[in-house]
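This protein record is not my work; I was only asked to verify it. Where you disagree with what is written, explain briefly why. This is what I was given:
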Amino acid sequence: MEKIRVTIYNEFHHEKIHESVRKVYPDGIHAAICSALEQDGRFETKVAVFEMPEHGLSQEVLDNTDVLFWWAHCLHEPILDEVVERIHKRVLEGMGLVVLHSGHASKIFRKLMGTGCKVKWRESDDLERIWVVKPSHPIASGLPEYFELPKEETYGEHFDIPDPDDVVFASWFSGGELFRSGCCFERGNGKIFYFRPGHETHPTFYDENVRKVLVNAALWAAAPGGVYQTYGHWLKDNYSK
């Protein structure tokens, strides 16, 4: 069976300049995400980081990507617009996109959503309880009713996004906030999943339940066999007889 081709984009910035982040992710946040997928065995992974030419996201790379993961925090605006356009086109063609944590503010997520994608937030090491609110969804497969992260950055509603096609997870924080933390969308032929946890100073991507979500999200978002619809001028003689 052919493996699902996953590209993991990470700024790889905080890990280089903040010891508090480097202690948690010495090889980069992307390495923790990669290990979750590679441990599963159904994925072939590659990594792209901000400082690579074209941020590591050339047309060739994207053409050979079934699902793109996106973790970003502080380098949203410097992302090249031509790369954003390239990713946008690939999502509409059928490439899956999994946006993590503060990737909600990325150019590509905002472009696909058509809104500001703003949230309320604070860094106070609150406990996050993530409830599975749509247990029948494939991304919830194998998860308990809820799971907890002892310390995370807090997000709160209102989350300025269009109404999701499905909300799989909802978070409650010990400070009282609520947040739609696992949201599914379809744009064109592509599937998009936003997953809230993943602050850089917490070991969130080592949590077994979070890693299960990453695997499930990649399986769900992967293009169905790479078959895309045909658009434009079409003659009836073009149909198979």
